[in-house]
Amino acid sequence: MMSSLGFHCHKSLLMIIFLAFLGLISFPAEADIKKYQFDVQVKNVSRLCHAKPIVTVNGRFPGPTIYVREGDRVQVNVTNHVKYNLSIHWHGLKQYRNGWADGPAYITQCPIQSGNSYTYDFNVTGQRGTLWWHAHILWLRATVYGAIVIMPKPGTPFPFPQPHREFEIVLGEWWNNDVEEVEKQGFKMGLPPNMSDAHTINGKPGPLFPCSEKHTYAIEVEQGKSYLLRIINAALNDELFFAIAGHTLTVVEVDAVYTKPFTTQSILIGPGQTTNVVVQANKVPGRYFMATRTFMDAPIPVDNKTATAILQYKGIPNTVLPSLPQLPAGNDSDFALNYNKKIRSLNSAKYPANVPLKVDRNLFYTIGLGKNSCPTCVNGTRLLASLNNVSFVMPQTALLQAHYFNMKGVFRTDFPERPPTPFNYTGVPLTANLGTSTGTRVGKIAFNSTVELVLQDTNLLTVESHPFHLHGYNFFVVGTGVGNFDPAKDPPKYNLVDPVERNTVGVPTGGWTAIRFRADNPGVWFMHCHLELHTGWGLKTAFVVEDGEGEDQSILPPPKDLPTC
């Protein structure tokens, strides 16, 4: 016979098991290790009546989604089966002290040689939301990309009502010809390469393009339920509008940071950025187009064709014709500026906006396009791009390795903190070459110092919007404006309470953007325009963030299988 004490213990144990089953008691769990195998391989793919071999991960286009939870450790073994040497960047993951896993070729690692493997091993700490991964060499990210979905820790809800279901929506570009050949031809001619032949949604252009009936992405929804769309702009060179016919979008997160929710008919998303929106399936059941098209408010030719996918209510036959959404005009600057002003950090007790209020380093970088002499090019010149009149030259040895092992002669740490010659940055178009130099020059930043960086567009050749991405960090976008930045009048207007926090920001056409961050992640971190065209022309640099004095404030030792150049 069971004793009274034993009976009560047994009953208590049953109650604990029952409550745990209901989710009312949570037990501490060790972080999981999520392992993925990425085989980089060529696959024949057909779009727009054209078939061609493309570089893929695991034969998929787009590539596989990485699913993890905040706090997990992730190991992705990448095996390179193609002729190109390449690397993979985990866009937006902070990689604390672990630049070896960041991925930009010749910045934090040498590329993975054909026939070789490398394991990216990193922790997902203090981040949750939507990010993405992509190749980070040449133009290979045209087809080598995929989503990263970071779920909150177990038992932690979203700061908005739980949606019924989620979908990843990855926007991209498609060229009928070999992308690497397109880029090489442009470089040889000294001109921008041919623009893409279509945009895509999850690798598919949609039925407005020839031979695309079967190349249309569709999602099924149920009346009265809400859905979370994780939207990623993986396009190489285009900022994009996105909308769903007849439906309002509620923005709840950008770049894996929660925002104050706001509603909009369309979103604007730059290359490298992510946006999570909630959609209520509360319209007349039918079929509705999701659509994306380029935003460009400068006199520059772009691929302005509309890619589509379908949102279809359950039970509606495929014979019903979908309706198209009304996207903003392709050059609607006002929409772009007003939309970005609406995005603000949630700044709650659980998710605060820790904006640096005191600044240790003030940096001012001008963005310029220019021309260099090129006797073999079409016009006798080749286009290039620069920050503070420095067009960045990629090294032959990875910068992080050179920094960590104290190798001399690989880079200089004298990147100018402001332009050498001030001028009316956004005045009449300037064609003069203001002494643009080339070199592998980076900025050095003391550990844990606070930085304000103003990025100023200029009218050197032409004004244009530029999405800038900083590796290894999030930053706060404290101010933005049109025209020339005024160091006396503009800082008092900064938002230092709830500015948007992100990893990629658009500098408006003929305008400026001010960002702030705390340099608490030691290493070498790439900063570049996320228009692949401009990156290739030299619109990039890097920050060397020095080690701190604490034992957990220095760069981790490199992994044993780190690729060599």
From TrEMBL:
The cofactor(s) it depends on are: Cu cation
Assigned protein family: Belongs to the multicopper oxidase family.
Q: What is this protein called?
A: Laccase
Q: Which GO terms describe its molecular function?
A: copper ion binding; hydroquinone:oxygen oxidoreductase activity
Q: Which domain of life is it from?
A: Eukaryota
Its signal peptide is: 1-31
Q: Supply the source organism for this entry.
A: Lupinus albus
Task of the protein? Lignin degradation and detoxification of lignin-derived products.
Reported EC number(s) for this entry are 1.10.3.2
Compartment annotation:
Secreted, Extracellular space, Apoplast
InterPro entries this protein is in? Cu-oxidase-like_N, Cu-oxidase_2nd, Cu-oxidase_C, Cu-oxidase_fam, Cu_oxidase_CS, Cu_oxidase_Cu_BS, Cupredoxin, CuRO_1_LCC
Membrane spanning residue stretches? none
